[in-house]
Amino acid sequence: MVNVTYLAYVRLQSLDLNQTEEFLMLGHEHLREADMYKHFWGIDRHVPGSQIFAYWQDSWNCVHEHSIDTDMLNIHYKPQRVPAEEGLNSQWGEPVPHEFKQHATP
After folding, report:
1. C-alpha atoms less than 13 angstroms from C-alpha of 14 in its C-beta half-sphere
2. Is the overall model pTM greater than 0.85, yes or no?
3. pLDDT digits over 50-59, tens only?
4. Fold that domain 9-71+80-95 belongs to in CATH
5. For residue 13, what pLDDT is reported?
């Protein structure tokens, strides 16, 4: 067995909380029109974390999460661990695609 190290995932997030939805939709349209990325999953909303997201795959099979964060946390928030199955739940759209699960888990 050969161990291979590679970049499998990149997350791009807007920090402008006043234009988050617009940023995500403009980016989604730009990536779709550029025709350089395969649309993988989304636009949707993760249950834990509440990120609104879309996943794209480049020609090197690296997955890019284009997302905005809708939660505002303070010092009273305690970090939590959730099972991967729960972490992949989405609120609005289609269930996580099988191809995405295969890519996300070694």
Report:
1. 22
2. no
3. 788 888 888 8
4. 2,3-Dihydroxybiphenyl 1,2-Dioxygenase; domain 1 (3.10.180)
5. 63
